[in-house]
Amino acid sequence: MTTVFLVRHGQTLFNLQHKIQGFCDSPLTEVGIKQAEIARKHLDNLDIQFDEAYSSTSERACDTLEILTDIPYTRRKNLREWNFGSYEGEGEHLNPPLPYLDFFVQFGGESQVDVEKRISEEIGLIVADKTEKNILIVSHGAAIANFYRRWEHTSEVTRSGRIQNCSLFKYHFDGEKFILEEIIEHDFSDLN
Fold it and tell me: Residues that bind substrate, according to the entry (predicted)?
C-alpha cells in the first residue's frame, strides 16, 4: 500500500498579513521556516524514508518541502492552491462565507468543483502504478481541504477547523481510494 504524506506549506508573509493567496505567492516568514523545521523533526522522529517528493510550483511550497526532506523532488502545477482570480493579494475580509463554490469564477478564478477535480486527479496521477512507497507532497490549505473533501467518505478520521500551516495529512492509497489515517498538527505555541 502506498502512503501519501500531504503537507500544507509554512506560514507566509500573506498569511501573516491576512491576504488572499492562491496562484500568487509570498515568501515563508521566519515563523514559517521554524514551523517546517518542527515538522521535519517530527518526520525524522517517525523515521520515515520518503521514496518520492512532489511540490506545488509555488515558492512557499517548494521552500517548505526543501526543509522537510533532502531528497530530490518534482514540481507540479496542478498541486497549486485554488485560483482566486482578481481577489488574490486582497484582504481575507473580502472572502465570502464558506463554502465558496463558484464565487471566484466571476473574478477570473476557479470553482470549487474545478479545484477538487484538479488536486484529486494530480495526486491520483502521482500514485498511479506505485506500490509500497512513501510519498511526500507539499501543497496548500484550500487545495488540501478539497482533496480531503473528495475522500472524506473513505475514512473515520475527520478534521475540524482550518488546516494549520505544516499540518500533515497521512493517507493510504489502496489502489482505488485514499484513506485518511491521521492528521498531525504540531505545537507551534512557542513560535508566537
Answer: 8-15, 60
